[in-house]
Write a structure and sequence with these properties.
Distance between the termini: 166 Å
Largest sheet: 3 strands, antiparallel
Radius of gyration: 51 Å
Strand order of the largest sheet: 3-2-5
Order of helices and strands: EEEEEHEEEEEHEEEEEEEHHHHEHHH
Mean pLDDT: 85
Strand content: 35-45%
Shape: elongated
Structural class: alpha+beta
Helix content: 25-40%
Length: 359
């Protein structure tokens, strides 16, 4: 005979001749020879699944059967603990407070499970998560088929055989640059143009469902509009209408861009890059124009100066007093440049000076 003590958090399973004869709880017990006992912690899962078909033992166990298309979320004392996948599991009844929530993963959608649990690390293997930012909109595709639009937020779906993709589009104003476009003008001058447009996604179904790679499609649309327009202009016409090209391209692509789910808000021609030979010729033309302008200005000034002198001469000829005043003015200017005057002559110097400065 032997003595066995079962503590408060334990249960004992008694065997005789390799058969379960009873289950014992907390207390002190004496056993005869031939009887065996296995002691289990009631706070832990019962791992001996091969025993659960015994009717004596089943009265003390809660059996959980899980299929391939299901999961069981186990909570302990009201708090999430872990996940059980396909299989059979057993827990001691009434001793430790376990609760079980069975969920189907046959469909990707998650129902009746809080996001707080879905964000747990233990569920990373079973849950797909996606985030749509406040400036984005998402489109949900299941097995390649569009299902619905997604607004900003966090989304969770079960990991199963279904394929899930989320396409996200930016709702903010965006810019598209068309750089280094080599285009021939009508008179066969090769130019390189840099063009830019500002656009915004307005119809996400058209942009992501009905159109493949909407941004590339928009790029080609602007590129073709530029080539078509520049090809109808000579080089001189292009230079004269440079500020109007953006408006012409905008009008050309605006309606077509709507079919891509895009609204074009603005367009602009950033740079017109000329070949080296053309650039040198343009510089020579500019220098010649500036020289011609300078010569014209000089001739106008000379003409004005001559006309002024002529008018002055006519006035002085008609008015002797004005002539004398002008003479005195020049003498004053000459005298202002002289530091010292030496005078030599007869006693009539004053009379001689008077004759110089008077009529």
């Amino acid at each position: 005979m032997k003595t066995v003590v079962i503590n408060e958090n334990e249960m004992g399973v008694v065997f005789k001749n390799n058969k379960i004869i009873k289950v014992i709880e907390q207390g002190k017990y004496w056993f005869f020879a031939g009887e065996q006992i296995s002691i289990f912690n009631v706070f832990k899962e019962f791992k001996e699944i091969d025993w659960i078909d015994n009717q004596i033992l089943n009265a003390y166990l809660e059996i959980v059967h899980i299929t391939d298309e299901a999961l069981v979320l186990v909570s302990e004392r009201g708090n999430f603990s872990h996940v059980l996948t396909a299989g059979t599991f057993a827990f001691w009844k009434g001793k430790h407070k376990f609760s079980f929530q069975e969920v189907s993963i046959a469909n990707y959608q998650i129902e009746n499970v809080s996001k707080a649990i879905l964000e747990k690390q233990q569920l990373n293997l079973y849950v797909r998560s996606f985030r749509v930012e406040s400036y984005e909109k998402g489109l949900l595709f299941v097995d390649g088929n569009f299902v619905k639009m997604l607004e900003a937020g966090n989304y969770f779906w079960w990991k199963n055989a279904q394929t899930i993709n989320v396409a996200k589009g930016d709702t903010r104003l965006q810019a598209l640059e068309i750089l280094g476009q080599e285009i021939l003008t009508k008179d066969k001058v090769q130019l390189r143009l840099n063009f830019v447009i500002q656009y915004q996604l307005t119809d996400f179904i058209k942009a992501f469902v009905d159109t493949k790679e909407h941004e590339k499609q928009l790029y080609v649309l602007v590129q073709m509009a530029l080539r078509t327009l520049i090809g109808t202009l000579t080089f001189d016409e292009l230079m004269d209408q440079k500020n109007e090209i953006a408006t012409l391209v905008f009008n050309e692509i605006n309606e077509k861009a709507q079919r891509l789910g895009v609204s074009v808000l603005d367009a602009g021609l950033k740079d017109v890059i000329l070949p080296g030979e053309i650039r040198e010729i343009m510089n020579q033309v500019l220098i010649a124009e500036k020289k011609a302008q300078a010569n014209s200005i000089m001739r106008r000034e000379e003409t004005a100066s001559t006309r002024s002198l002529l008018n002055t001469a006519k006035l002085m000829d008609e008015n002797q007093m004005l002539y004398k005043l002008k003479e005195m003015e020049y003498i004053e200017k000459i005298a202002d440049k002289i530091n010292t005057i030496s005078v030599s002559g007869s006693n009539n110097i004053v009379s001689e000076l008077k004759q110089i400065f008077t009529k």
